């Protein structure tokens, strides 16, 4: 009950919701893949890796539901790709598609009522990104000195 009340509170706080089931992460991932291709430097690799990391959410959802993560993620990516490159208005709705863990398929998360408070999603993405940046900065700072051989 407490979790449900917190979800309602977050929704009221942000006054907006986004589709669940990995829909947001999949859409962001595909947009970032396209964005990465506009760079011809080291940044392309970093953006592409961040894009791939976003797919950890839908992949983990599928694995935790004991479903075939590869097939589901492929189906989800196909739908989102079709929505981003659609001239067909029917395919434009594919942007709302997320994982249906009950049936092992993808579906329109908005129509199914699988929604998340936008403020929670934004904070999660922001904190995860900041944590990764912090780890990378620490990794750059920490250098292990080579071991000295005896007599040197």
UniProtKB/TrEMBL annotation:
It comes from the Eukaryota. Keywords: ATP-binding, Chaperone, Nucleotide-binding. The keyword RNA-binding does not apply. One of its GO terms (molecular function) is ATP binding. This is T-complex protein 1 subunit alpha.
